[in-house]
Amino acid sequence: MAKTKSLIHPVILSGGSGTRLWPLSRAHTPKQLLPLLSDRSLLQETALRVADSIRFAAPIVIGNDQHRFMVAEQLREIGIAPAALVLEPEGRNTAPAVAIAALMMRATDPHALILVLPSDHSIKDDAAFMTALARAEAAARVGHLVTFGITPDRPETGYGYIHRGAPLAGLDGCFTLARFIEKPDRARADAMLAAGDYYWNSGMFLFPVDRVIEELRRFEPELLGCCERALAGAKGDLDFLRLERSAFAAARSISIDYAVMERTQAAAVVPAAMGWSDVGTFDALWQIGARDAAGNVSFGSVSAEDVRNSYLRADHGLIAALGLEEIIVVATADTVLVAPRERAQDLKLLVQRLERDGRTELESHPLTHRPWGSFCSIHQGERVQVKHIVVKPGGRLSLQYHNHRAEHWVVVRGVATVTRGSELMTLTEDQSTYIPRLMPHRLENKGDIALHLIEVQTGSYLGEDDIVRLEDSYGRSSKD
Q1: What is the mean pLDDT of residues 202-229?
Q2: Is the pTM above the cut of 0.70?
Q3: Has residue 2 got a pLDDT over 50?
Q4: Alpha carbons within 13 A on the beta-carbon side of 373
């Protein structure tokens, strides 16, 4: 009987922040968790791309502790149960994340292949992706560390490049990797496009587990040791695996490109034209978006007159634009961004200014997701804040109290089960209750439909950190 080929193990990296897509992407809701190109988030699109159980095992997802419930919920929505949902206590770039995944796989199958995929990229041509993967698999199964090079269709200055070397004998469509090139200026990008043997660096890799660990031990032994200790000290928390904080934080912050791929003799590249984008800027969103006859990409409520080659996105309200060309306009519930499309790469400069100014708009949207549902800030004023709270069926907030604020709850839709001190009550539509300062309380939805209520907070301090949790179904502390 022929030996069955082992499955490829996807490793989805979901720890980035995507500041070049602010105000859509924010610290609490990074770009991979946003539906930027379809009704699904970039994370969901990535996970579905490798959901074929005949070819792929369940994915290992490595993400930021802060986003854990959103990641888990988005995977649940599309019916994907990850093999592991690993939480990084802090971001340390891609080399430690790859090391963690490889070490996890070594425990069960040291000869496995791991397919490392950023969660925030877009691929339009899935068939071309699978063709490239088949070529990469042939090379990886004989010990090569393979990256995917994207055939460029323009002189892009926002991407790093890969220069291919000689063809690999007996491996169709595979080449040695000659060198990596940092983001070039326009003249060099033009020259590399004309040469025909340079490719965009996709940040996607196919690694044999035993070989990538061997190379990490050769080039970054301290990093690998930190990751071994972080994994040895990891603890389960609900559906998550929490890496040991101090060991992981001690790992060098470095990309897998610098740590291994630029130094190893085993590096290979598979070129492919698969409609890839790193979705890194608003110009990238314009490049891959569906443009109208005037060259505009529009989302939401947009009315444009004499506007050309622009990206217009209204997530809140109406955008009315007149006489513009090659402009980015993005309107959210609390922010409006206006910039020339050619300056999309420079958005980080504006973000840095907002950081210096201490602007809270960098952190979160007015709509904030929680494991039990969501809340949206409707109004903020002196000593008062109004929120619209939605609790999903089965959702249960923590038993908590506040040192500085009182709360008034009015049920708009559904049935609320309320703990108020020693009292347990049921509230239906149009009924309300009052939660004094320092009183322990809890809100639950035991019904079959979403619970909607309006919360009015009053007091001297209304920050989200004024929560003292006495008991929580989701393992959160008062800081979560």
Answers
A1: 97
A2: yes
A3: no
A4: 21
CB 13 within 8 A of CB 118: yes
Looking at the predicted structure, is the pLDDT value of residue 367 above 90? no
Evaluate the omega torsion of the peptide bond into residue 221 and state whether it is cis, within 30 degrees of 0: no
Rg (CA), the chain: 25
Give the pLDDT score at 18: 66
Tell me the mean pLDDT in the region 94-112. Answer: 96
191 and 139 Cβ atoms separated by less than 8 Å: no
- Domain 8-277 and domain 367-471, same fold? Reply is no
How far is residue 297's CA from residue 301's CA, in Å, rounded to a whole number? 12
- Which residue reads 């978006």 in tokens? 289
Q: Is 256 helix (H, G, I), strand (E, B) or coil?
A: helix
Instruction: Using the CB atoms, write b or e for 113-147: b if 16+ within 10 Å.
Output: bbbbbbbbbbbeeeebbeebbebbbbbbeeebbbb
Rounded Cα distance between 49 and 72, Å, is 17
Q: Where are the domains of the chain?
A: 8-277, 282-356, 367-471
DSSP annotation string for 340-405: EGGGGGGHHHHHHHHHHTT-GGGT--SEEEETTEEEEEEEEETTEEEEEEEE-TT-BPPEEE-SSE
DSSP H/E element including 318? strand 311-322
Containing H/E element for 418? strand 416-420
Q: Which two tokens stand for residue 134?
A: 């088949």
Helix (H) or strand (E) holding 96: helix 94-106
The pLDDT value recorded for residue 1 is 35
CATH placement of domain 367-471: 2.60.120.10
Containing H/E element for 42? helix 42-49
Would you call 150 helix, strand, or coil by DSSP? strand
Q: Where are the beta strands (DSSP E) in 26-171?
A: 60-64, 84-88, 113-118, 122-123, 145-150, 161-167
pLDDT of residue 5: 66
pLDDT-based confidence at 6, cuts 50/70/90?
Answer: confident
Maximum CA pair distance of the chain? 76
Chain segment 429-444, per-residue pLDDT in tens = 999 999 999 999 999 9
* pLDDT, tens digit (0-9, with 9 covering 90-100), for 138-173: 999 999 999 999 999 999 988 999 999 999 999 999
pLDDT band of 369, cuts 50, 70, 90: confident
- For residue 93, CA distances in Å to 63, 71, 77, 358 come to 11, 19, 28, 25
Architecture of domain 8-277: Alpha-Beta Complex (3.90)
